[in-house]
Amino acid sequence: MSYTKIDVYKPVNGAAGVSSNNDNILIFEWDEVVSGYARDSKGVVIPSTIVMKPGCYMTRYYSTRTKTAPSYANEGDQDSTAFKHSVDSMHPGDSEEIMELIQNWVNKNCGVIVQKCDGTSDRLYGDPCHPMQLKPTGQDDSSARGQQLLWEGAGTMSKVPGIYKGNVTLESPLAVIAADETSPSVALGEGQYQLSDNTGATEISGMDDAEDGKTYTFLGSGGAFPASIPAGNDFLLKDGVTWNGVAGSQITFKAFKDGAATFKFIEVSRA
User: Fold this and answer.
1) How far is residue 112's CA from residue 193's CA, in Å, rounded to a whole number?
2) Residue-wise DSSP of the chain
3) Which of 43, 83, 215, 261 sits at a 20 to 30 Å CA gap from 160?
4) What does the pLDDT look like over 241-257, one tens digit per residue?
5) CA end-to-end span of the chain, whole Å?
6) Annotated domain spans of the chain
7) Residue 191: what are its φ and ψ, rounded to 5°?
């Protein structure tokens, strides 16, 4: 039976002294990415959402917060400095799930996203030309049992770790929006929301329960009556071009509060 990528969470019975503050680390294969990793003109911020190929998604695993150590180091001579990315992490225990993750992610060209506990922007390590690769080490003795997952860049690159402001692509969306909804709720927070095929032509004019500065992604449904988002109403679309929710499409917005209880939703990316 082939390996299916699954999230690996903190063990229920963790080792004594392990922090209860949960940090998730996200990993994905660059071969499964379509677009969305381009940086802005200043070379640090990644404003778009990374778009995965159909049926592909990012995977999470738990890393003890106090033992999560993302970093970068400069290498090279004067006037020719480059950066080597690294993410060191520790997963407590030796469950079947974490051992299978290790076995099936070695020798893969990966991107690594470190999520922040304080809600600030995530950090992306590596890029398609300078991927991260897993170098694991296991410990099982009287002092501890756990798996050290060290991700190291394959060579050096010209850029520091990116500030990733897009949403993450997980196996399941946060919610499925009901058919014929014209102002869907995004109360579950930042992430992806799956639209449904409608009973007739349906235009989305706004979002309910949004928060200022947060990003939200709609996934197209396809079907006979996929939802559309035209320019105007609460949406600011790039070049004023209407988005149609055909199968495999997606669009990401950033919420901007422009009044006491009103918002504008600015297009960040689409695919």
Assistant:
1) 23
2) -------B---SSPPTT--S-EEEEEEEEGGGEEE-----TTSSEE-SPPEEPTT---EEEEEEGGG-EEEEEEESSTT--EEEEEEEEEEES--HHHHHHHHHHTT--EEEEEPPTTSPPEEEE-BTTB-EEEEEEEEESSS-EEEEEEEEESS-BSSPPEEE-S----SS-SEEPPTT-SS-B-TT-SEEEE----SS--B----BS--TT-EEEEEP--SSS--EE-SBTTEE-GGGPPEE--TT-EEEEEEEE-SSS-EEEEEEEE-
3) 215
4) 999 999 888 899 999 99
5) 33
6) 22-164, 175-270
7) 140, -160
Asked whether the predicted pLDDT for residue 199 surpasses 50, the reply is yes
Question: Comparing 151 with 17, which gets the higher pLDDT?
Answer: 151
Give the C-alpha separation, 112 to 176, whole Å: 27
pLDDT at 4 over 80: no
Beta bridge partner(s), residue 8? 61
pLDDT tens by residue, 104-140: 999 999 999 998 776 667 899 999 999 999 999 999 9
Higher-pLDDT residue of 183 and 155 is: 183
- Owner of token pair 């939703």: 265
Of 180, 265, 199, give the one whose Cα is nearest residue 231: 265
What's the pLDDT at 118?
65
Instruction: Report whether 253 contacts 264 (CB < 8 A).
Output: no
